[in-house]
Amino acid sequence: QVQLVESGGGLVQPGGSLRLSCAASGSIFSIVAMGWYRRGSGKQRELVARVTSGGSVDYADSVKGRFTISRDGAKKTVYLQMNSLQPEDTDVYYCNGYIYSSKSTWDSYWGQGTQVTVSS
Fold this sequence. Notes:
Layout (H helix, E strand, L loop, with lengths): L1 E6 L2 E3 L5 E9 L1 E11 L7 E7 L4 E3 L7 E6 L4 E6 L8 E11 L4 E5 L3 E5 L2
Parallel strand pairs: 2-11
Antiparallel strand pairs: 1-3, 3-8, 4-5, 4-9, 5-6, 7-8, 9-10, 9-11
C-alpha cells in the first residue's frame, strides 16, 4: 500500500507564511510527480503546484511568485512553501503523487488533506 501523509496546515494571518509537507511511504518503486491541489470552488480539485522527478515545476497563476514547491527524492517528500498568504488561499490542501508501486501499475494517490485558513 502507498500512503501520503501531509502536515503543516493551520491558521495564519494575511501576509503570513506556512510550509506544507507530504511524505510518501509504502511499496514505492518510482515517483513520477508529486504536487499539491486544493478543493477550490469547482467540482474538481485545482492544481496549486506540481514537481516532477526531473525537477520540472508548474504553478497555478494565482500562486506564482508567492508559493514554492520543492522535493526531497531520498525522503520521498514534497514541500510547499506558501508566502504572502491571502484569505482567498483558505482551503483544504491535498497532496498528490503519481507513483509506480508493487502493484506494478502507475496510480494517482491522494493524502487526507490539510486545512489552511488565512484570517485576521
